[in-house]
């Protein structure tokens, strides 16, 4: 949720705490209802452990002109090329600033996140 409304097309990244070096990072993308399914190594779900969670949402910069179609399907390439801008406050998207931490264990979840435009 972002400012009380579902947040679509946001990317969640689940980064294992340093004490969980055997845990694999995971990702998820929110749908129109703000719901997501986390996955790692091509499977849905996350390995048990403690994760810091970042949330980001990017939009293509309007002044980028013609972007090759193959880049439009690759968010990482768009980000690396500078073709996108972050629309969420850094407190959510920056691993060193995020306040979101979850403990994944059998039977836990779903994990919901409340965001606001002020980054609190």
Topology:
Layout: E1 11-16, E2 26-29, E3 39-40, E4 43-44, E5 49-56, E6 58-60, H1 69-72, H2 75-81, E7 84-86, H3 90-93, E8 101-104
Largest sheet: 4 strands, antiparallel
Radius of gyration: 15 Å
Q: Which structural class do you get from the secondary structure elements?
A: alpha+beta
**N-end to C-end Cα span:** 13 Å
Whole-number average pLDDT?
A: 83
Strand order of the largest sheet: 2-1-5-8
Per DSSP, the total helix count is: 3
Low-confidence stretches: none
H/E series, N to C? EEEEEEHHEHE
Strand residue content: 25-35%
Bin the helical content.
Answer: 10-25%
Shape: globular
Oligomerization state: single chain
Q: Tally of extended strands?
A: 8
Description of the molecule:
The radius of gyration is 15 Å and the shape is globular. The chain is 12% helix and 27% strand. The chain has helices at 69-72, 75-81, 90-93, and strands at 11-16, 26-29, 39-40, 43-44, 49-56, 58-60, 84-86, 101-104.
Give a quick rundown of the structure.
By secondary structure, the protein is α+β, with helices and mostly antiparallel strands.
List keywords for this structure.
two-stranded antiparallel sheet; 12% helix; four-stranded antiparallel beta sheet; 3 helices; globular; alpha+beta; 120 residues
């Amino acid at each position: 949720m972002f400012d009380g409304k579902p947040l679509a097309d946001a990317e969640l990244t689940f980064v294992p705490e340093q004490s969980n070096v055997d845990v694999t990072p995971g990702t998820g993308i929110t749908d129109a209802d703000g719901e997501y399914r986390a996955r790692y190594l091509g499977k849905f779900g996350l390995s048990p452990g403690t994760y810091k969670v970042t949330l980001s949402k990017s939009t293509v910069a309007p002044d980028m002109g013609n972007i090759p179609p193959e880049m439009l399907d690759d968010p990482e390439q768009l980000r690396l090329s500078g073709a996108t801008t972050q629309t969420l406050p850094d407190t959510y998207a920056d691993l060193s600033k995020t306040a979101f931490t979850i403990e994944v264990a059998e039977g836990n979840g779903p994990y919901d996140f409340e965001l606001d435009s002020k980054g609190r």
